[in-house]
Amino acid sequence: MLAIIRSAVLRRSLAGAFMLGGSLAACSAQAANFTMYRDASCGCCSAWADHVAHGDDHSVETVDHPDMRAVKAEHGVPAQLQSCHTAIVEGYVIEGHVPTADIERLLAERPAGVTGLAVPGMPMGSPGMEHGGHRQAYQVVAFGPAGMTVWASYPAQPAAGS
What is the DSSP string of 5-38? Predict the structure, then answer.
Protein backbone atom coordinates (compact mmCIF):
# COMPACT_ATOMS: atom_id res chain seq x y z
CA MET A 1 0.00 0.00 0.00
CA LEU A 2 2.84 2.37 0.88
CA ALA A 3 4.47 1.63 -2.49
CA ILE A 4 1.25 2.62 -4.30
CA ILE A 5 1.06 5.93 -2.41
CA ARG A 6 4.74 6.68 -3.11
CA SER A 7 4.22 5.90 -6.81
CA ALA A 8 1.20 8.20 -6.99
CA VAL A 9 3.04 11.03 -5.21
CA LEU A 10 6.02 10.60 -7.53
CA ARG A 11 3.81 10.72 -10.65
CA ARG A 12 2.07 13.89 -9.42
CA SER A 13 5.40 15.48 -8.52
CA LEU A 14 6.85 14.70 -11.95
CA ALA A 15 3.74 15.97 -13.71
CA GLY A 16 3.87 19.16 -11.68
CA ALA A 17 7.57 19.63 -12.44
CA PHE A 18 6.95 19.20 -16.18
CA MET A 19 4.06 21.68 -16.09
CA LEU A 20 6.11 24.20 -14.13
CA GLY A 21 9.09 23.73 -16.43
CA GLY A 22 6.90 24.29 -19.49
CA SER A 23 5.40 27.41 -17.96
CA LEU A 24 8.82 28.82 -17.12
CA ALA A 25 10.08 28.08 -20.63
CA ALA A 26 7.06 29.86 -22.12
CA CYS A 27 7.71 32.90 -19.94
CA SER A 28 11.37 33.06 -20.84
CA ALA A 29 10.56 32.71 -24.55
CA GLN A 30 8.44 35.86 -24.38
CA ALA A 31 11.36 38.11 -23.42
CA ALA A 32 13.48 39.17 -26.39
CA ASN A 33 16.52 41.32 -27.03
CA PHE A 34 16.19 43.88 -29.82
CA THR A 35 18.91 45.87 -31.55
CA MET A 36 17.42 49.02 -33.06
CA TYR A 37 19.33 51.04 -35.66
CA ARG A 38 18.29 54.65 -36.07
CA ASP A 39 19.40 58.06 -37.20
CA ALA A 40 20.56 59.96 -34.12
CA SER A 41 18.30 62.91 -34.94
CA CYS A 42 15.06 60.90 -34.91
CA GLY A 43 13.06 61.17 -31.68
CA CYS A 44 10.16 58.83 -32.50
CA CYS A 45 12.53 55.85 -32.60
CA SER A 46 13.19 56.17 -28.87
CA ALA A 47 9.45 56.34 -28.24
CA TRP A 48 8.98 53.10 -30.22
CA ALA A 49 11.80 51.45 -28.21
CA ASP A 50 10.01 52.50 -24.99
CA HIS A 51 6.81 50.89 -26.35
CA VAL A 52 8.64 47.61 -27.02
CA ALA A 53 10.47 47.57 -23.68
CA HIS A 54 7.35 48.53 -21.68
CA GLY A 55 7.06 46.40 -18.56
CA ASP A 56 10.61 45.08 -18.95
CA ASP A 57 9.38 42.24 -21.15
CA HIS A 58 11.95 43.06 -23.83
CA SER A 59 15.23 44.94 -23.95
CA VAL A 60 16.17 47.33 -26.74
CA GLU A 61 19.75 48.29 -27.51
CA THR A 62 19.82 51.49 -29.57
CA VAL A 63 22.54 51.96 -32.18
CA ASP A 64 22.85 55.39 -33.79
CA HIS A 65 23.90 54.75 -37.38
CA PRO A 66 25.05 57.37 -39.90
CA ASP A 67 23.81 55.42 -42.97
CA MET A 68 20.35 53.97 -42.44
CA ARG A 69 19.99 53.16 -46.16
CA ALA A 70 22.90 50.76 -45.81
CA VAL A 71 21.31 49.12 -42.73
CA LYS A 72 18.03 48.61 -44.58
CA ALA A 73 19.79 47.23 -47.66
CA GLU A 74 21.90 44.86 -45.55
CA HIS A 75 18.76 43.43 -43.92
CA GLY A 76 16.67 43.22 -47.10
CA VAL A 77 14.00 45.81 -46.29
CA PRO A 78 12.08 46.52 -49.53
CA ALA A 79 12.16 50.23 -50.52
CA GLN A 80 8.36 50.57 -50.38
CA LEU A 81 8.29 49.34 -46.75
CA GLN A 82 11.01 51.54 -45.31
CA SER A 83 10.50 53.74 -42.28
CA CYS A 84 12.78 55.57 -39.86
CA HIS A 85 14.33 52.77 -37.79
CA THR A 86 15.24 49.11 -38.31
CA ALA A 87 15.37 46.58 -35.49
CA ILE A 88 16.66 43.02 -35.38
CA VAL A 89 15.18 40.49 -32.98
CA GLU A 90 15.88 36.74 -32.99
CA GLY A 91 16.93 36.92 -36.65
CA TYR A 92 13.86 38.85 -37.81
CA VAL A 93 13.85 42.38 -39.22
CA ILE A 94 11.37 44.84 -37.73
CA GLU A 95 11.02 47.99 -39.83
CA GLY A 96 9.33 51.07 -38.42
CA HIS A 97 6.53 51.44 -35.91
CA VAL A 98 5.38 47.81 -35.62
CA PRO A 99 3.23 47.11 -32.52
CA THR A 100 4.77 44.79 -29.93
CA ALA A 101 1.81 42.37 -30.14
CA ASP A 102 2.54 41.74 -33.82
CA ILE A 103 6.24 41.14 -33.11
CA GLU A 104 5.38 38.72 -30.31
CA ARG A 105 3.02 36.87 -32.66
CA LEU A 106 5.83 36.64 -35.25
CA LEU A 107 8.24 35.25 -32.64
CA ALA A 108 5.65 32.72 -31.45
CA GLU A 109 4.51 31.53 -34.89
CA ARG A 110 7.82 31.81 -36.80
CA PRO A 111 6.18 31.47 -40.23
CA ALA A 112 8.25 30.04 -43.06
CA GLY A 113 9.43 32.53 -45.65
CA VAL A 114 9.03 35.64 -43.48
CA THR A 115 12.12 37.81 -43.07
CA GLY A 116 10.38 40.45 -41.00
CA LEU A 117 7.54 42.89 -40.38
CA ALA A 118 7.20 46.51 -41.44
CA VAL A 119 4.96 49.52 -40.97
CA PRO A 120 5.81 51.69 -43.97
CA GLY A 121 6.24 55.40 -43.35
CA MET A 122 5.43 56.92 -39.99
CA PRO A 123 1.64 56.70 -39.49
CA MET A 124 0.24 58.88 -36.74
CA GLY A 125 -1.05 56.82 -33.84
CA SER A 126 1.23 53.84 -34.42
CA PRO A 127 3.57 52.92 -31.51
CA GLY A 128 6.04 55.74 -31.01
CA MET A 129 3.92 58.11 -33.10
CA GLU A 130 1.07 58.59 -30.62
CA HIS A 131 -0.93 61.78 -30.90
CA GLY A 132 -3.72 61.80 -28.33
CA GLY A 133 -6.35 59.27 -29.33
CA HIS A 134 -5.98 59.97 -33.06
CA ARG A 135 -4.71 57.18 -35.29
CA GLN A 136 -4.30 56.96 -39.06
CA ALA A 137 -5.20 53.63 -40.61
CA TYR A 138 -2.11 51.52 -41.22
CA GLN A 139 -1.02 47.99 -41.98
CA VAL A 140 1.74 45.76 -40.69
CA VAL A 141 3.29 43.97 -43.67
CA ALA A 142 5.15 40.67 -43.49
CA PHE A 143 7.95 40.43 -46.07
CA GLY A 144 10.40 37.83 -47.26
CA PRO A 145 11.83 36.12 -50.33
CA ALA A 146 8.38 35.20 -51.65
CA GLY A 147 7.01 38.74 -51.42
CA MET A 148 4.78 40.69 -49.08
CA THR A 149 1.49 40.08 -47.32
CA VAL A 150 -0.63 41.98 -44.80
CA TRP A 151 0.09 40.67 -41.29
CA ALA A 152 -2.29 42.99 -39.41
CA SER A 153 -4.47 46.03 -40.08
CA TYR A 154 -5.26 48.92 -37.75
CA PRO A 155 -8.25 51.12 -38.62
CA ALA A 156 -8.29 54.89 -38.36
CA GLN A 157 -9.42 56.28 -35.05
CA PRO A 158 -10.49 59.92 -34.84
CA ALA A 159 -9.33 62.08 -31.97
CA ALA A 160 -11.71 62.26 -29.01
CA GLY A 161 -14.29 64.99 -29.49
CA SER A 162 -13.93 64.99 -33.31
Answer: HHHHHHHHHHHHHHHHHHHHHHHHHH--EEEEEE
